[in-house]
Design a protein that fits this description.
Blueprint (H helix, E strand, L loop, with lengths): L4 H28 L2 H4 L4 H5 L7 H14 L9 H33 L8 H12 L1 H39 L4 E5 L10 H11 L4 E9 L8 E6 L25 E5 H7 L6 E6 L2 E11 L8 E5 H8 L6 E4 L4 H13 L6 E4 L1 H15 L1 H28 L1 H9 L4 H43 L9 H26 L4 H4 L5
Parallel strand pairs: 3-7, 4-6
Antiparallel strand pairs: 1-8, 1-9, 2-3, 2-8, 4-7, 5-6
Length: 497
């Protein structure tokens, strides 16, 4: 653990500044209010009328769209982060207008002349349709927390599924063998390779050689991978992205990872010079492949081309195909009996996949904690908002009790308000979170890590969290209502006498 006082002070200052700015507008509004008017019940909705202006939020959304297509700055997705912030601001700013329009539409649908409807639902829709400013306060916290949770959940799920698909594609063999020495310092010579072929019997064996190469002095080494690959069908072993370039006769093809496009400006169909055998060797970039293992870049060439240039016959890995499970078990036993068998690492594709996904889940476990924190923050905001508004509406509830509304019906009104408000916030939060996830998946991650992924939605997780949010909001509204109704109707309206 390392504590950085400067960063802590910066974040403390930011939090305090946001809190003060959040109090500034209400404080100015209260200072400008006329005392006689401010004492009237319902004046709070007049003060919130300014929130219904849509043009500032529309400007934020348009600016977010422009930032989403901006290139990185110093290899960082700064404009992508600006786009996410502007989307949140614009989405929250539109909530008063959206809440008013939505609940007025529901009011017209359910409160049509001649249609019988529950008094609880009628009173709930009447209030929400005519007091959208107060409703939007509760919606803001739900929208912000749930949209960020949706965005993070979709991003992590997309990355995990993409990694899983990538591992399944690049590991088509039944058994993978490599030397136990770390990195590229361990080799399998010609004799060891021949012994592995004999053990495999009729199964196909493909060898692979990995080594670091330096393409630029100011950047980390890239990984050169020389393997038995068919230039006419490279997609059989590589997870290709985009179209592959036909290889002219006599050319040495190379397939580069997505990081090579961003870090070195490599393009398909262009030449690429790689230092091999003590001299620069030209290759033709024949395609781009997805590589989640090497963030600094990787280059795949044919093993035959590598050996022709360097003269080196050693390899670091072997991929063995077996006819069935029995043959695979026999190959594993005989490999262990070889003189160099104790120095080998054997792994099946399922074992590699399970270990890789376990590492992934451990690495991203903190994101699930952050999602939980975001939900707790959203629920805290909803609880504080409902509690404050319920206490402030004590006279309203007292008046309703005087005209015949029962205590249970008042609690039902609060429960319906909490459910409807949170449902609207969850629906809008899902839409906004989906847009934010698109920026995370297709802008922030490629500009940060130089790889792409496919979009996948964790429907079960999102549905469960949405249901918990709605249920917790209803419960919070009921708890707040029970406290507000504890004083009795006469006491609640005595200020109006």
């Amino acid at each position: 653990m390392v504590f950085t006082p400067l960063a802590a002070c910066v974040f403390f200052g930011l939090g305090l500044g946001v809190a003060l700015l959040g109090c500034l507008v209400p404080a100015l509004e209260a200072a400008r209010a006329r005392p006689a008017v401010a004492l009237k019940s319902g004046n709070d909705e007049v003060a919130l009328a300014r929130l219904a202006r849509a043009w500032p939020s529309v400007v934020c959304l348009l600016a977010a769209a422009a930032c989403a297509f901006a290139p990185p700055v110093f290899e960082l997705p700064l404009f992508g982060y600006f786009a996410i912030g502007l989307l949140l601001i614009g989405g929250i700013g539109l909530m008063p207008r959206l809440a008013g329009s939505s609940f007025r539409l529901l009011e017209r649908l359910f409160l049509r002349p001649g249609r019988r409807i529950s008094p609880v639902l009628a009173l709930t829709l009447a209030r929400l349709a005519n007091a959208p400013g107060q409703a939007s306060i509760a919606l803001g916290g739900v929208l912000a927390s749930f949209s960020l949770m949706v965005a993070m959940g979709i991003m992590v799920a997309s990355f995990r599924v993409s990694v899983d698909d990538w591992i399944r594609h690049i590991l088509p063999a039944d058994l993978y063998v490599r030397t136990a020495a770390a990195g590229s310092s361990g080799f399998l010579g010609s004799a060891e390779q021949e012994a592995i072929r004999r053990v495999a019997g009729g199964g196909a064996v493909q060898f692979l050689r990995t080594r670091p190469v330096s393409l630029a002095a100011d950047r980390p080494d890239v990984v050169l991978i020389a393997r038995d690959i068919d230039a006419t069908d490279p997609g059989k072993l590589l997870y290709l992205v985009g179209e592959s370039q036909p290889v002219p006769p006599g050319a040495r093809p190379a397939w580069v990872s997505e990081a090579m496009l961003d870090l070195y400006g490599v393009r398909v169909g262009q030449p690429l010079t790689v230092p091999l055998g003590g001299k620069p060797t030209p290759f033709l970039v024949a395609g781009v492949w997805r590589d989640y293992a090497n963030q600094t870049g990787s280059i795949v060439v044919r093993l035959s081309d590598y050996r022709a240039v360097t003269g080196a016959q050693e390899v670091t890995d072997a991929a063995i195909h077996a006819e069935n499970d029995a043959a695979l078990a026999r190959i594993e036993r005989e490999l262990r009996r070889l003189p160099f068998g104790p120095a080998l690492q054997l792994a099946r594709p399922g074992e590699i996949r399970a270990a890789s996904l376990q590492i992934f889940d451990r690495s991203f476990a903190v994101t699930y904690l952050l999602e939980a924190i975001a939900i707790v923050i959203g629920l805290s905001g909803v609880a504080a908002t409902f509690s404050a508004q319920t206490l402030a509406r004590a006279r309203e509830f007292g008046m309703l009790r005087h005209v015949g509304v029962t205590r249970g019906q008042v609690l039902g009104i609060l429960a319906c308000e909490g459910g409807l408000l949170t449902s609207l916030g969850v629906a809008c939060g899902f839409a906004l979170g989906l847009v934010i996830s698109l920026i995370l998946v297709f802008v922030v991650n490629p500009q940060s890590f130089h790889w792409t992924m496919s979009l996948h939605l964790p429907r079960g997780l999102l549905g469960t969290v949405a249901a918990i949010l709605v249920g917790a909001s209803v419960a919070t509204a009921l708890v707040s209502g029970r406290y507000a109704l504890s004083g009795g109707p006469v006491r609640a309206v005595r200020e109006d006498w």
